[in-house]
Amino acid sequence: MKYCRILAFGLIAATGLSLALANLLSLIPNDTWWIRVTDFPRLQSALILAVLVACAACFLGHYRRASMALIAVMLATFIYHAVVLLPYTPLHGALTHAACTPEKRLTVMVANVRFHNDPNGRLIEQVRRYKPDVFLVLEVNDAWVNALSPLERAMPYTITHTTGSYFGIALYSRLPLHSSEVRYLAGQDTPQIVTEVELPTGERIDFLGIHPRPPHPSQSALGRDAVLLKAGLLLNDSDRPGVIAGDLNATPWERAVNQMREIGRLVDPRQGYGFLPTYDAQSWWMRWPLDHVFYEAG
After folding, report:
1. According to the model, what pLDDT value does residue 98 have?
2. Sign of CA dihedral 245, 250, 256, 261
3. Per-residue pLDDT at 281
4. What single string gives the DSSP state of each residue in the chain?
5. pLDDT in tens, 159-171
6. Which of 140, 214, 283, 298 gets the highest tally of CB atoms within 10 A of its CB?
């Protein structure tokens, strides 16, 4: 029994300290992929830590000092996660905005079709149901572009660029597009859409559809972060309001995303509406908010 108790406490301590270490790593301003991905599972880490604190409390009668020290470390880590995540919970309260007349509104829909998925028509049904003004599609190939072509009847202003890889991109719009370009921002070899959208009032806004490469074992987060910052700079240099949308392969609380928002004077409409994870849709547990729509307040 004694050895089982020691083993159980050891497992709790090892897991709790590992999560605390991962949180410390996320604070390091470093582009190494395995450091940057520690930003992703904050909600999962917080939930695990809450359970571990309760479990560690059961050992106070046997290992009082060690348990108290462990609980203190885990609680401090949990509180930090909670502070970071608070804006993305209903407790924060939704943002309030001045009333906007219908002709000045812009509705945006974003979908990552995951390239290899079967273009079976269900996505078209969703677009027709919600009727967005602008529809950005990521990871499209030629088969997806062909399958989505019926949308062009209602959304005739279209930009498509396939790559034969996971970084094809397409934009469908009910509203006229101007000065449209497919650009490679910050030198990264993934195409991004840069265009102007003409509102019914005749006013134009900048729209950037982006999909930078994610941090993973074969590449750092440097390219991704450079694309995000370049997108923010493009809006900063323009005298028009703007929107940045797409699969950023980054969570909204990451340093690079916050820098992009500051540079571009962007608002995150997700705040106050909940966690709203977008990837991986196949998982009920390991899911993160990686797809975003940010807008510049007028």
Report:
1. 59
2. positive
3. 80
4. -HHHHHHHHHHHHHHHHHHHHHHHHHTS----HHHHGGGTTHHHHHHHHHHHHHHHHTTTTTSHHHHHHHHHHHHHHHHHHHHHHGGGSGGG---------GGG---EEEEE-TTTS---SHHHHHHHHH--SEEEEES--HHHHHHTGGGGGT--EEEEE--SSTT-EEEEESS-EEEEEEE-GGG-SS-EEEEEEE-TTS-EEEEEEE-PPPPBTTB-SHHHHHHHHHHHHHHHT-SS-EEEEEE-SS-TTSHHHHHHHHHHTEE-TTTTS-----B-TT-SSS-B--EEEEEE--
5. 999 998 899 999 9
6. 140
pLDDT at position 23: 95
Chain centroid offset of residue 272 CA: 15
pLDDT of 96 > 70? The answer is no
**Helix axis angle, 42-57 relative to 64-85, nearest 10°?**
150
Q: What are the tokens at 23?
A: 């949180």
Instruction: Check residue 95 and give its pLDDT.
Output: 65
Amino acid code (one letter) for 247: D
pLDDT one-digit tens code per residue, 185-224: 988 889 999 999 999 999 999 999 999 999 999 899 999 9
Distance CA 133, CA 175 (A): 7
Using alpha carbons, list the distances in angstroms from residue 79 to 23, 74, 194, 297. 11, 9, 39, 31
Tell me the two tokens of residue 70: 């462990």
Look at residue 33 and tell me whether its pLDDT is greater than 90. Answer: yes
| Tokens (6 digits) for 209 | 């559809």
Which tokens go with 222?
Answer: 């440097």
Q: Are 172 and 151 in contact (CB under 8 A)?
A: yes
Average pLDDT over the chain, rounded to an integer: 93
